[in-house]
Each structure stands twice: as structure tokens, then as C-alpha cells.
Design goal:
Elements lengths: L10 E4 L3 E7 L2 E8 L1 H9 L5 E8 L4 H9 L2 E9 L4 E7 L6 E7 L19 E4 L4 H9 L6 E4 L3 H6 L1 H8 L4 E5 H8 L4 H9 L5 E5 L5 E5 L2 E5 L13 H16 L4 H18 L6 H5 L2 H15 L8
Parallel strand pairs: 1-4, 1-8, 2-6, 4-5, 8-9, 9-10, 10-11
Antiparallel strand pairs: 2-3, 6-7, 11-12, 12-13
Bound molecules: adenosine monophosphate.
Length: 313
């Protein structure tokens, strides 16, 4: 990752766009908007225009497509195919860091082969959100000369498509995954050891999301740690990780600055947007969120983490 250039803005994301059913100790939301690319794109759209790649069925609510468009999300890369949209049902335990997948149907994603609109192929920023590594690779093949490629994956693919995932990781400079995924991918419980093994697979940088414990960023020999914004109540953690990645990549794409200092700032913006997502089911909190709300919480985050380095202890 280099320094600042004039080229900024365009951010392509591929990933799942889904209809979720979510159960928490506090309630249940049936057939609501979900999917990694949906959370990512809406989060990134607070900072920069987004170009989305994916597929939905003919049952996907028109009003959600309109909402995406109204947020500056280009849907030229989203196919509408006859059939059902991807469906996922998850149930959270009392400890919200633990959840069970009750059902998963790929539906229209089965056999889907993304072909990018010509206008997407010059995008400098690309995020390969949660979807099979083969599809992530196919999207990357079509981008001519990206400045920064980020990717996510999940247990489903780490266990079920390991060879394809390892082939992809050689081509991805920035991997953004959660702590459980880091353990599964590396076979190590300790995050420092896990990071070392994952960086040996190809990525030059790694962000490990640890839910309420914040984020660890590894790049070369440096480590950066950011806390999560302290919340009294987490209502629905679904998509927090995708929202975080959307905030990070959206902020980097908007500024065109991918220096180490900018990446630290982007991590805080990502953490701030993710902290809003978990306050309500699905993407509901993001529907009313404003850039001012984000900036306000960003400033709180700065004061939360600042201390006087000059004073003696
Ligand atoms: P996260 O909470 O960050 O793991 O992301 C949750 C989102 O991932 C949900 O909105 C689901 O629709 C989506 N999802 C669940 N299973 C899969 C899968 N196998 N592939 C892609 N996306 C999935």
C-alpha cells in the first residue's frame, strides 16, 4: 500500500445480498434486509459512491433497491434473476458473540457468475465481501489495476473451500476477518500467532475484528489496536463486521489516502459505523444515521482513546 494519489472515490464491492431472519434474546426479525454486500455498501456510502456487484431474486423488495440507489450505490452490477433471494436464518445466544446458523439457502447465488459493467473495471478500490472465494476471484479478475483490494471470508468458506480461498489470499493485500475466522484459518488461538500465519498466506495487512473487544491491525511488523465503542446494549450484531469493513474502505476510497496513518483513522471510522449498526435489527439504524452522527461519535472515540503521553506516570 502506497501513499496518497489524486485518484479516489470509486469503490466496488461484491458479496451476498440476502433476506435474513434473526433471533436474539430480545426478539425476532423475519425476512429483513441482510447480506455482506448490503451492510458494506450502505456503510461505505456515508463516505463515497459505491458500485455493487451481486444478484437478487425477483422477490427482493423494490424499496430496498431504491434505498440503495438513493444512497449513491450504483446497482448496474446487481442482477435480478428469476427465483428466490439468498436466505439466512441465525440465532444469537445470550452471549452475543456466539450464534448458530439455523438455515442457509444460496438460491439465486447458485450458478451465478458475476460480469462487471465496463465502468466498474477501472475502480481503484475493491472489496471482496463474503461470498465463495471462486466468485471473489472472478470479480478480481475483471478489475484492471486496483490500488487497494480488501477481502473478507467466513467459517463456511474456510472449511468448505479452503483451496480456492488460499488461491485468493495470494492476491489480496488486505484481509478483514473476525477472531473466530482468524483462529480457524490459522489453527492458532493466540491472535499474534494467528496473524503471523495468515500474513504468510499472502495478505500484506490484516484486520482482526474482535466484536466488543475492538480491532487489531497487523501490517509488516507493526500492530495497531482500537477498542470498540462502548455500548450499553447490543441489539443485533449481524453485519457489524461488514459495516466495519464498509466504513474502513469507504473512508480510504473517499480520501484516496492509504498511508499507515490514514488506515488507523479509517479503522476508527469503521468502528464508529459498526457501533451504530448493532443498535437495531438488520440495517434499520443505518436508515436514519447521518454523517453528523458519525462525526460526533468519531470525536467521542478520539477522547475515549486519548491520554497525555507527555506526563510522567
Ligand atoms: P456477519 O454478521 O458479518 O457475519 O454477516 C452477516 C450476513 O452474512 C447476513 O446478513 C447473512 O445474510 C450473510 N451470510 C450468512 N451466511 C452467508 C454465506 N454462507 N455466504 C455469504 N453471506 C452469508
Amino acid at each position: 500500500m502506497g501513499g496518497r494519489t489524486e485518484q479516489s472515490g470509486a469503490l466496488v464491492v461484491v458479496g451476498s445480498v440476502a433476506i435474513d431472519t434473526i433471533e436474539t434474546q430480545g426478539g425476532r426479525a423475519a425476512e429483513v434486509l441482510g447480506g455482506a454486500a448490503a451492510y458494506f455498501a450502505v456503510a461505505a456510502s456515508f463516505f463515497t459512491p459505491v458500485r455493487m456487484v451481486g444478484v437478487v431474486g425477483d422477490d427482493f423488495p423494490q424499496r430496498d433497491l431504491e434505498w440503495f440507489r438513493s444512497r449513491g450505490i450504483d446497482l448496474a452490477g446487481v442482477e435480478v434473476r428469476p427465483g428466490r433471494t439468498m436466505r439466512w436464518t441465525g440465532r444469537y445466544h445470550e452471549d452475543m458473540n456466539v450464534r448458530d446458523t439455523l438455515s442457509f439457502e444460496a438460491n439465486v447465488f447458485d450458478g451465478y457468475l458475476p460480469t462487471l459493467p465496463a465502468a466498474y473495471c477501472d475502480a481503484p478500490f475493491v472489496f471482496l465481501g463474503n461470498i465463495s472465494p471462486a466468485l471473489q476471484g472472478r470479480v478480481l479478475d475483471q478489475i484492471r489495476s486496483p490500488r487497494l483490494v480488501g477481502a473478507d471470508t467466513m467459517n463456511f468458506y474456510i472449511e468448505g473451500a479452503r483451496a480456492e480461498l488460499e488461491a485468493l489470499l495470494c492476491r489480496v493485500p488486505l484481509l478483514i476477518i473476525n477472531d473466530e475466522e482468524a483462529r480457524l484459518l490459522s489453527g492458532e488461538r493466540n491472535m499474534i500467532r494467528a496473524a503471523r500465519k495468515i500474513l504468510a498466506l499472502g495478505p500484506t495487512s490484516l484486520m482482526i475484528k474482535r466484536g466488543e473487544y475492538g480491532v487489531l491491525f497487523f501490517s509488516g511488523d507493526t500492530v495497531f489496536s482500537a477498542p470498540a465503542y462502548p455500548l450499553e446494549e447490543v441489539f443485533d450484531p449481524t453485519g457489524a463486521g461488514d459495516t466495519f469493513a464498509g466504513g474502513v474502505m469507504g473512508w480510504l476510497a473517499a480520501t484516496g489516502d492509504v498511508s499507515p496513518a490514514a488506515i488507523r483513522k479509517a479503522i476508527v471510522y469503521g468502528s464508529v459505523v459498526a457501533s451504530f449498526t448493532v443498535e437495531a435489527f438488520s440495517l434499520e439504524r443505518l436508515r436514519t444515521l447521518t454523517r453528523d452522527d458519525i462525526e460526533r461519535r468519531y470525536r467521542e472515540f478520539v477522547s475515549l482513546t486519548s491520554f497525555d503521553v507527555a506526563s510522567p506516570v
